[in-house]
Amino acid sequence: MERKRLLTGDRPTGPLHLGHYVGSLQNRLKLQSEYETFIIIADVQALTDNYANPDKVRANVLEVYKDYYAVGLDFTKVHIFIQSLIPEIAELTIFFTNLVSHAEVLRNPTVKTEILEKDLTSRVPLGFVMYPVSQAADILFCKANLVPVGQDQAPMIEIAKDIALRFNKIYKTDIFPTPQALFGNVSRLVGTDGNAKMSKSLGNVINLNSTTEHVKKQVMSMYTDPTRIHTTDKGKVESNPVFIYHNIFNDNSAEVKDLEDRYREGKVGDKEVKEKLFLALEKFLNPIRDRRAIIEKKSPQELLADLIESTNYVRKIAKQTLIEVKEAMKINYEG
Ligand code: TRP
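# tryptophan complex -> structure
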């Protein structure tokens, strides 16, 4: 029996960070053998709000590719590809636009939030409001069954499901499976400043490729319990960013428990809690840094050649799906 398929990916707009790790990368690592795994470097989607910054998107394609290797994706198994090199995805997007109403795209909560966050209110590109439809094409061209993503992507998977069901029903076919979302253990990792949103512009991020110095700086300036003034004050562990991070990244759970107990009792200073978090994060990041050093031995030309080869394999699958789609839609003029 054929393995089920998994598809997910990222916009190449910057280095991947700890939020990406808990939201989706961790699940990719866990499932990369069990599922046939497809990973999209979504340059077309990145351009929907970065159309005037093509250099940024271009530069980050290989950065994200290297992050994938660094974090432990097995390049002999997974199919990583560049979205724009598969024009069939764009074709499928056009067909899908008829299956979604204008009102539906406009009420997508993630798109609405992103329009505010990205300051697009004065001019919302049509491509941007439409990106959930194009993301449905990303997911469905390879007939993915599972989509590991962060919680913020839930509405995108809902649209993909709706489109799959509608397409099958309207065109009386069973081409598309209904894709299921798989969320990470942590619904959303807060920034080091406690802000719900992690972003480069807020400066509250630790990247997978952050240096030791940067990790130290971020951790030592992290937000803790704002009501705790003195080390001897009883502190709150819940919703305290330092402890949120400890619980996720510190593999020494006895140490975390001890710190939590003492924090609650006012018997430990923020400094010790942060220093231990710093060490735990270094332990987590060091193997990722080692793997990054390996992939960085390859030249950008070599890396791009590998990525194109892997993309070509994926494109064959896209072409096959498009044949089936056009047949179902009765636009298969050439037989
Ligand atoms: N929108 C996703 C993000 O911003 C990236 C993405 C593009 C994606 N196409 C996808 C995720 C398909 C899952 C499936 O992180």
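# post-check
The beta strands are 5-10, 36-41, 79-82, 146-149, 180-183.
Residues 7-11, 40, 42, 45, 135, 138-139, 147, 149, 153 surround tryptophan (CB under 6 Å).
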